[in-house]
Structure formats: C-alpha cells, structure tokens
Amino acid sequence: MAIESNKLTVAEPVPARERSGSFPLSTSAPSVLPAALKDPVDPARLAHTQLLQGPFWRRVPAYAEVDETEFLDHRWQAKHSITKIPKLLEALRGLVSDAFIQDAAEGFRHAPMSVRVSPYLLSLIDWTRPYEDPLRLQFIPVASRHLPDHPKLDLDSLHERADMPVPGLTHRYFDRALFLPLDTCPVYCRFCTRSYAVGIDTEEVSKFQLKVNAERWQQAFAYIRSRPELEDIVISGGDVYQLRPEQITEIGETLLAMPNVRRMRYATKGPAVMPQKILTDDAWTDALTRVVEHGRSLHKEVVVHTHFNHPREITWITQAAMNKLFERGITVRNQTVLQRGVNDDVQTMRLLVKRLGHLNVRPYYVYMHDLVRGVEDLRTTLQTGLDIEKGVRGLTAGFNTPTVIVDAPGGGGKRDAHSYEHYNRTTGISVFVSPNVHPGQIYYYFDPIDLLPPEGRARWADPAEHPRMIEEARIASLAHPH
How large is the average pLDDT for residues 464-476? Predict the structure, then answer.
C-alpha cells in the first residue's frame, strides 16, 4: 500500500475465483483515511523511541580511542570497571573541576558503599553538569550535598536478617523467599538497601558477609525444599550478573527440581549498567536461557527482574541486549527506586516508563526510597510518590504501568503507597499495616526532614518530640484510618 497526501491507496482486490476461502474480499473503491479526532502527534511525545546512538563513550577522554568491538566486550567492561576511589577521581580529571574531585573524595570517605563503576556507566554521565546529573547522583557521592541520616534510620532498615532462617535466605512473605547467593555487584549503588552486606567494608560500615559458599547455599536449598508453601523464589544478592554460568544453572536447576517452587526471579541491575554482558557473555546468557526454557517445559515461570531508574540509562546497547532476551522468550520486569533529583518528577518517570515499554521491559514497581545510611539527599516524600503515580497512570497499558510501593521499615513488607492508614505531611510520618506479613503490627515510613514544613522540622530537631509524633500518628491511624 502507498500513502499519497491524506489518502490511503489499497491494492486492487483479487478476483474471487483466484482466492480460497468462503468470504469474498471487498471490491469497493480505494478508501479514504478517516477524519482524525486528535491533532498530529508532537514529535516530543515520541522521545521514548529516540535512544542514544553511536560511540557515545568517546566523549570521555579515557575511552576516546576505544572501538565498538572492545566497548561491547563484557570482559573489557569488567576489567576496566573502577574499584578504587583514587583511580575514579583520576579518570575524571579534565572532565570536572578540581573542586568537584575534592568534593567527591570527601563524599566517598563517609559513604556506606564501596566504589565500583563501569566504563559504560561513566560514559553516560553528563560531566558538564556533574552536580545535577541524575546518573552521577546514584553512584558518586559528594560531601557538599550530604544530609544527616533520619533519626529513625536503621542500617538494615527492612530487617531482612530478622527473617533469615539460614544466612542469606529471607522468608518474610508466606509463599515467597529471597535468596542472596552472593554479595557483589557489577556496580555499587549509593542507595543500596542491602548496604549492610553488599560490597567490601568501608570506613562507615562493617559488612554482614554473604559470600558464595556451597554449604550456605545447601542450607538455603534444604530450607526451601522443606517448606511446601514456598512457591516463589527471588534470586538476588548482590547481583546474579556476578554468578558464573554454572552457578546460574546450579541454582536454577536445583530450585526447578523442587515440586513446591513454581516461580523464580533472577534479579540484576546489570542491563542498566553493563548490558554488554548479555550480548557477549554467551555462556552466561545461554545458561540463563536454558533455565528459563526448562522452567517453561515444567510449566514453571522463570523471569528476570532488573533495575532502571532514569531514561538516560537506556541506549542502543540496552536495546540490543533486551532484544536478545526477548528473542529467547525471557520476560524482563523493572523495579525503579524513586530518588530526589533523579526521577522524582512526572515527566521523567513518564519517559522512563514509555522507554522501558518500548524495549519490552515491563515497569513493575517504583519503590519509595528506603531509609539507607548516607543517602538522605536522595530520598523524597511519600506525597511525591503519590503524585507521580497519579501522573503516570493512564499513560500506557496497565501492564506497563508501575505501582508505587513502600517497603515498610522494620519488616512490614511491600505496601501500595496509597494504602497508608494515616499520613501526616507536617511530621512526614505515614502509617502502614501489613495483614499478610505480620498481622496486628504497625509500621512507619518517614519523609526526609529537610523537605518538611518548618513546624515539622522544628519538632524533629527536639529528640523528646520523636516518640510523641509517632504516638500521635499511631492514634490517628486507629481513629481515622485512610
């Protein structure tokens, strides 16, 4: 068919005697396009389809001579990932001011997470505006933006260790468990909920060890096998990107062999920070594919859960990697963390959601930022999350629309952000209950103090007010539940 002006020309119909089937085709004259009910689409509305192209990494002096074949090699990415603070700062010379480098050096000294940044990620940061860049914010701390931790912060804010029957296996929900086979990642995020265990020790934190250990794994498998209610296992860490192919296979096949296990999720941030692995580590991708296919043959679901936070994390390399997984029938879902200055506005989240859908990655959850040590500058208010979900809902299909979630501090589990029992926007305290996790218990989420109105900030400045504010919230939640 061809389009001329506003008319659509349809090919001449085939005579009935030359066709098979009992329903004759229409022999009407060439049809005219129906009158449009909507204005022509603004090209800006299709920005989600416009991915970063070309050898963008060459903007960074350290990678100016790196060709495409080398940059796409996962081994090159891993080998050149920066794990030492002085080396990272040296790579930034010529890109940023000396003042920024000193600010970052001081920021790392007080960070709970060790440093690990891939060349791919480093090349996506806009170094002409490093303080505002949403990717820099997530991975490279600066002392000048540091805020005091919230008084109610706990290093293991979700109390994952309290629900561990064996080390590295959290059984909180009735039919689900979280298996942490290792404690390393392809990059280290500032905001990591699991900063109590992930990465090496820092000046701020001595880590809870979850290194690869055959005996520990067998204990976890034995526990899962012994619990007939466990149907859904999340395999995380750390990050499954760091598992060897044979370990991907061992975990997957061991769990698939258990009659009670019906669903598995391999969790990785890898596609957002090093998509090259999917493209060039054939042994790893093939191992994952075989587990997925075996699961399908057993009528069991095996999927990948990943973690994009900003639309600029998605490039032509990402698309190639996601296309490869899609061709192999592997479902990919995304879980985003809501972060101040990164994605805490409706327009950014709309673009992220549409861009993920364009790559056949299903936006699943947007988490309210957990209370994590050293990153109060990244947290935002519950109201911001509510506003963003309202602004995104209806933008695209429901199955590609994420739900905003509060993972209730203290082990209350995931709650829809709208399901609070009470929310005081002056004190920033919201109240949640979780009838399917710990019935009868009340859990509290806390907005960042610096974003509260003056009255709320004043009350938090007085430690004697803290228990009073929490008690007021508790009583209000019982008297006037939301």
Answer: 97
Across residues 364-386, what is the average pLDDT? 95
Catalytic residue list contains 468? no
Whether 333 is catalytic is no
- H or E element: which one contains 365? strand 361-368
Three-state secondary structure call for residue 374:
coil
pLDDT digits (tens, 9 = 90+) for 154-180: 756 667 778 899 999 999 999 999 999
Q: At which residue do the structure tokens 């994009």 appear?
A: 308
SS3 content of the chain, % helix, strand, coil (to 5): 40, 15, 45
Nearest to 324 by CA among 277, 257, 387: 277
Q: Which residue has the tokens 């296992």?
A: 233
HSE of 144, CA atoms in CB hemisphere, 13 A: 9
Give residue 7's pLDDT: 33
Which of 371, 372, 353 has the alpha carbon at shortest distance from 310? 353
Active-site position among 173, 367, 420, 443: 173
Domain 58-332: top CATH class? alpha beta
Q: Indicate the pTM of the whole model.
A: 0.89
The catalytic residue among 183, 344, 370, 377 is 370
Say which of 116, 136, 194, 265 is annotated catalytic.
Answer: 194
192 assigned to active site: yes
Cβ of 75: how many Cβ atoms within 10 Å?
12
Please identify which residue in the block is written with the tokens 């005091």.
148
pLDDT of residue 402: 97
What SS3 class is residue 420? coil
Q: Which residues of 348-385 are buried (b: 16+ CB within 10 A; e: fewer)?
A: bbbbbbbbbbbbebbbbbbbbbbbbbbbbbbbbbbebb
Annotated catalytic, 414? Answer: yes
Instruction: Compute the Cα dihedral for 297, 399, 349, 48 and give only its sign.
Output: positive
pLDDT digits (tens, 9 = 90+) for 221-266: 999 999 999 999 999 988 999 999 999 999 999 999 999 999 999 9
The pLDDT-based confidence of 207 (bands split at 50, 70, 90) is very low
- Percentage of the chain surpassing pLDDT 90? 70
| Contact (CB, 8 A) for 141 and 111 | yes
Closest listed residue to residue 252, CA positions, set 264, 241, 269, 239? 264
- H-run or E-run covering 433: strand 429-433
Report the chain's mean pLDDT, rounded to a whole number. 89
Pull the structure tokens for residue 376: 């109060």
pLDDT of residue 323 exceeding 90, the answer is yes
CB 317 within 8 A of CB 275: yes
